[in-house]
Each structure stands twice: as structure tokens, then as C-alpha cells.
Amino acid sequence: MSVRLFPGRRMLPLRCLLACLLLVCSIVATASPGAIAAARSYTVTAPDGVRLAVQEHGATDGPAIVFVHGLLGSRINWDAQLADARLQRYRLITYDLRGHGVSGKPVAASAYQEGTRWADDLAAVLKAANARETVLVGWSLGGAVISNYLSRYGDTGLAGVVYVDGVIELRAEQLGAHPAIYRDLVSPDLRTHLQAVQDFLRLCFATQPPIPVFEALLASASLASWDMQRAVQGMSVDVAGLQRTRLPVLLMYGARDALVATEPTVARARQLQPRAQTALYPDAGHAPFLEDSARFNQDLLRFVEH
């Protein structure tokens, strides 16, 4: 199956077409030839009808690692992991969250505010992929998606859970204080909105990435739904499943994260799950999988293999 960028006979808005073109050009400019094998792409339909773009890399069978990106992201956030030969021994599954990338973009606020919708999406992807012995890896907002999944579906069929600078709860003490950026992300003024997107992405890094990498991330972010950006700030997060699980849990956080407050967030996660392991990246911000990808991949591999 292939991802349909043009459902029915409707044309995408010019802004989305330009963003898609920039995204493709940026990825081509930053990826080494042959670094990432061609994806096996297909679509999955969530229970509420939202179409989700799914991609698989690496092995075609065996244990899976499912990567769940964060706010304003897409599957390209995980390129450094998909290109790692050691990780390619596993089924590497990515998908664009609802309201992101080339997945469906409903307009109703409830489609984003109800945390169970995001959990249902992940469940639909796992079922369609027939994933087994799966390790879930959630970055930022992706951590909240995993928490909601554990609370709604439990941990049957899973082998472990990884929070990468993950949102544990949407509480002020666990988040960086950037009210102006979150306000401007939903501004009706295009220039204000685009500046907020750039500012948000810059806050993801303690040390700014090379320009081509930043441009690729910016292009990806421009595909995110404005309806989603408005509504997701009120998303419900249920941590009961994280507290109940007996699975191995790994907390991978950058010590210099400006978007998620590392110390109180890790403390809260360990309060909920005292058995959780912790990997801190002293020179990384909100995106250690990009800022310190070599160590990140090694730590992830060690967790998956044990």
C-alpha cells in the first residue's frame, strides 16, 4: 500500500505543496547516499477515520521498534536511527502522528484533545504492522501518546517503553515556560506563526544543528495542522498505565532541555515507575537522538537487547 497525498480529487493547498517540495529537497541534501534504505510505506486507518502514514525500515520480520515523534515533527525526525546498521537488524516502524506530516488532519478540536484518539492511532499501527516484541520509543509529545496507549491498552505484546525527553504530564512544573511561543504557534497571522515555528524548533537544541538539518525539520513542521496546534495544548494525558506496567522503562533526557524540564519530569516518571532506568545526555537539549545520535543509538540498542 502507498500513502495517498491527494485523497479523492481534492488538491492540496499551495502551502502544503511547497512544504512537501522543500522537505524532499532538504532530505536529499542532508542524507548520505544509501544511508537509509527505501521504506515500505502503507496507510492505516484509525478508528475515527483518520488516515495514518506508516513506514518500515530494517528487518522485515522479528522484534520491532516503533518510533513516535513529537509536536511539529514527522517520521524524518528518526533518520539517524533508521540509518544505523545495528538498529536495522530490527523492524523499525515510524508513522506520522495525526495532524502531522502526510497523515490525516481532522479539524475538530476533540480529535486532538482526547488522548485516547492518539492511543487508538498507535494501537491501529501496531495491529496493522503485526508488530511483536515491540519497544515503543516516544519523543516529547510521543511520550504522552505512549502513556495514553499503556493506560488504554495495557502492555501486552510489548517488550519495553522508552521516553525520549517525553512529556509525562502537561503540568507547568514539567514544561519549559514559553507562553509566547505557544500563543504565536496558533496565531492567525502567517508571519507570526512561522516565526513561532522556527523559535520552537530552535528550542529543541542545546547546540543548533547544521542549516540543512534545521531546514528539513522546518519543512516538516510546516506540514503540521494549525487545528492540531491549537487543540493539542489541551490534550489529556493518563499516566495510570505507566504506573501499572511491569515492562522495562528507559528515560532518555537531555540535561539542557529547554522545552521539558528534565529534573522534575524524570523525578515524576520515577515516582510513577521506580524501576525505570535513566540515561542523561549532559550536552543535549530536547533532541538527544539528533544531538548525540551515536550514544543515543548505542543506549537504545543496549536497552532493546536486554
TrEMBL record:
The record's listing under PANTHER family reads:
HYDROLASE, PUTATIVE (AFU_ORTHOLOGUE AFUA_2G14860)-RELATED, MONOACYLGLYCEROL LIPASE
Single annotated GO MF: hydrolase activity
Question: InterPro entries this protein is in?
Answer: AB_hydrolase_1, AB_hydrolase_fold, AB_hydrolase_sf
What Gene3D superfamilies has UniProt attached to this entry? Answer: alpha/beta hydrolase
Keyword flag Chloroplast = no
Q: Start and end of every AB hydrolase-1 domain?
A: 65-297
Is Signal a UniProt keyword of this protein? yes
Q: What is this protein called?
A: Alpha/beta hydrolase
Q: Which GO terms describe its cellular component?
A: membrane
Q: Which domain of life is it from?
A: Bacteria
Q: Name one Pfam family in it.
A: Abhydrolase_6
- Keywords of the record: Hydrolase, Signal
Native species:
Xanthomonas axonopodis pv. melhusii
* Signal peptide range: 1-31
